[in-house]
Structure prediction request, 211 residues.
Amino acid sequence: MKELVQVSGIKSAPGNSLSYQLLLHGQKTIFEVQLWYDPKTLVPIKRTIAGTTGNTSSKFTETYEFVLGAEVADADLQLK
Amino acid sequence: MNILIVLALLVQDKAAETTFQKIEETLNAAKTLKVSYQVESHIVNAKASVDQTSSYSGSLLLKEGNKALFTYELDKKVSGLSSDGKTALTAVHSACQGEQDPRELEREPHHRVRASWLQGHSGLASNEASA
Prediction:
């Protein structure tokens, strides 16, 4: 995964969040990322990704609900 | 005074990197991982008069042994990718419209079941999963 994505410039940001730059392998666009996390469980809560390629600027806002260590049967991993 | 500010920033950045590593370690250490997500996207190209906002949602299940199920729903169409640790399958279909169950397609040879996004048909593509 680290070969596909290059992370740099990690800094603390307001509200239990980190900011950093993201570079996807083979692409020139550097995306500005801010990641909010739960300080107790250290799982991501929200992430914004913004970047400009040529004349196109894009921004993605992602919100997450993480559950770690849950029971997952192999049958649950099939496309339905 | 300036040196103190620089030192403070360096310490802060070091702490941020440590936090980032701890988040990575937390996720990597989990034997299973379930994620529900919502995404809002905003794409602007003034030159092409594009100002597009869209949203989609989905889920991700990960399990030891490179087993995974990733799904997303966009415009009431559900698509996804699954991996049993040896073979990765992707399906493009619309559960809401009652199209072909992608599980049926899993039985077909993968050279016959390429995903057909452009044609708007249910489809499936299979590739050996990378280790």
